[in-house]
């Protein structure tokens, strides 16, 4: 029986062997995959110089994905945790926003929902040590500091703190906990019955944040809503569906997806909607993508609400994160999504990734960002909503009400450069101003501050002198004085009260918001 079993095994294995192949390939089930594995092994074991094989693998994976589509991407293991935290909507740490001021870790603001507030940490505190690690005088990078402050949930960290306002050293024990990373960055009332909500991405916690903001606005009398999705790159599909469901009646189609096998999955609104009767204005621009476009397309195709702004980015592909076994992940495109009328809004990527992501400049050159009449649409991509409104597929969501871009790409590039060189220093400047006397703001409410605090010409000049003397930046910013004053005041608000008032201040004079208020008043 033993001999018979051995003969049978030999016949079975022999039948599987490829005798026309070289000896190295006899046991290979896929020669293409095997070729890549063998090449990496040869480099690892035989190449004359030491080579970082991991970096070769990373380059190889990226090169493969570049030949698929612009949104299938590789995320190395060292970046995956940060990306995952961003999508989860929280991280585990002590809950502070900090800056290195005079080579000392300084608390700029304690974060809402984090453990630092309950532990008694205050803005202006200098954190000198975390357990046995010294956090000053070492020219530490932010990543090094974050590593020392983050950790496992419920683990303790002992902080040595110097509080300048009282000239004392404190020792504070706190337990690390989850700290929210807000995706609903602002909500407030624009008029007596028109609320405003800004979402900067769609993470796991976004729907809960949105629901809380919406309930808060409704309690203040909001019967209509401006939903700001400008510069929102998208996020989690299920969260997007839940938010769209808030506005659509039971049974309305939100979107459907189709994979390479032709399998279709449809997503419908439920009876859970909490804002089905209110008017909705969706603010979009050329950087609103993916999940943002799903919401705009679902509302537009169901004859619900008004899309205000400019044509959106044009991403109609759905990705799924797939682990590669070493902590790294590939976000692979697995299907296309379509709006309720059957539109695909994915724009072409046949000319490569660079041209795909640089299309913004083509839009400007064609005049599209200044005039809706310059948007090129094909009659073959024409669709009709249930009430007969004409909508188009291919290359993004075209707004119902157009609001032009007032700056050129060159001006925007200059402004971005100014932000990097100038606005980036506003945090430090405002922090130092507050440090002179934080107590004077202790009894002033956020609303009172926003109404009464003014950035004077003298304060702006003080800031320009700070740029020149402390930062070596000699830039004439008279042309940008209104924007600079708005940014400085917004930074005061952010450091004293948080992000909600910060965004509200930055929205002062915003053309799209002014258009929404105008439409609402008519």
TrEMBL record:
GO terms for biological process: proteolysis; signal transduction. Keywords: Hydrolase, Protease, Serine protease. PROSITE patterns: PDZ. InterPro entries: ClpP/crotonase-like_dom_sf, PDZ, PDZ_sf, Peptidase_S41A, Tail-specific_protease. Pfam families: PDZ_2, Peptidase_S41. The keyword Protease applies. It comes from the Bacteria. One of its GO terms (molecular function) is serine-type peptidase activity. Residues 80-152 form the PDZ domain. Signal peptide: none annotated. Belongs to the peptidase S41A family. This is Carboxyl-terminal processing protease. It comes from Kordia periserrulae.
């Amino acid at each position: 029986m033993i001999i018979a079993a051995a003969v049978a095994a030999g016949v079975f294995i022999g039948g599987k062997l490829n005798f026309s192949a070289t000896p190295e390939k006899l046991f290979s089930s896929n020669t293409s995959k095997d070729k890549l594995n063998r090449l990496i092994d040869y480099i690892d074991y035989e190449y004359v110089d030491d080579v970082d094989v991991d970096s070769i693998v990373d380059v190889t994976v990226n090169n493969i994905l570049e030949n698929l589509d612009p949104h299938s991407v590789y995320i190395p293991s060292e970046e995956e945790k940060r990306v995952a935290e961003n999508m989860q909507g929280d991280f585990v740490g002590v809950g502070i926003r900090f800056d290195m001021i005079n080579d000392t870790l300084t608390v700029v603001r304690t974060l809402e929902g984090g453990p630092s507030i309950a532990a008694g940490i205050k803005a202006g505190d200098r954190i000198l040590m975390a357990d046995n690690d010294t956090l000053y005088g070492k020219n530490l990078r932010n990543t090094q500091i974050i590593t020392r402050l983050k950790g496992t949930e419920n683990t303790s960290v002992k902080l040595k703190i110097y509080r300048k306002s009282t000239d004392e050293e404190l020792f504070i024990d706190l337990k690390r906990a989850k700290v929210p990373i807000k995706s609903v960055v602002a909500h407030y009332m624009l008029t007596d019955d028109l609320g405003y909500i800004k979402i900067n991405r769609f993470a796991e916690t976004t729907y809960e944040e949105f629901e809380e903001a919406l309930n808060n606005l409704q309690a203040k009398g909001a019967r209509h809503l401006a939903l700001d999705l400008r510069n929102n790159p998208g996020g989690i599909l299920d969260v997007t569906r839940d938010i769209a469901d808030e506005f659509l009646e039971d049974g309305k189609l939100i979107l459907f997806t189709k994979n390479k096998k032709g399998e279709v999955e449809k997503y419908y609104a439920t009876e859970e909607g909490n804002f089905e009767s209110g008017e909705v204005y969706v603010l979009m621009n050329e950087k609103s993508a993916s999940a943002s476009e799903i919401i705009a397309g679902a509302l537009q195709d169901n004859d619900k609400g008004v899309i205000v702004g400019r044509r959106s980015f044009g991403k109609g592909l759905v990705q799924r994160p797939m682990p590669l076994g070493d902590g790294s992940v590939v976000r692979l495109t697995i299907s296309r999504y379509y709006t309720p009328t059957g539109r695909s809004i994915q724009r072409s990527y046949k000319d490569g990734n660079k041209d795909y992501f640089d299309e913004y400049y083509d839009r400007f050159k064609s005049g599209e960002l200044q005039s809706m009449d310059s948007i090129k649409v094909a009659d073959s991509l024409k669709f009709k909503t249930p009430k007969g409104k004409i909508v188009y597929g291919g290359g993004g969501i075209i707004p119902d009400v157009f609001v032009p871009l007032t700056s050129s790409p060159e001006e925007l590039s200059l402004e971005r450069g100014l932000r990097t060189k100038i606005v980036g220093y506003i945090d430090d400047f405002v922090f130092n101003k507050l440090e002179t006397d934080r107590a004077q703001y202790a009894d002033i409410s956020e609303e009172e501050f926003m109404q009464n605090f003014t950035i004077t010409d003298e304060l702006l000049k003080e800031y320009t002198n700070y740029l020149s003397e402390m930062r070596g930046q000699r830039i004439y910013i008279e042309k940008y004085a209104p924007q600079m004053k708005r940014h400085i005041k917004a930074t005061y608000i952010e450091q004293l009260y948080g992000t909600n008032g910060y965004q509200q201040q930055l929205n002062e004079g915003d053309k799209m918001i002014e258009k929404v208020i105008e439409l609402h008043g008519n």
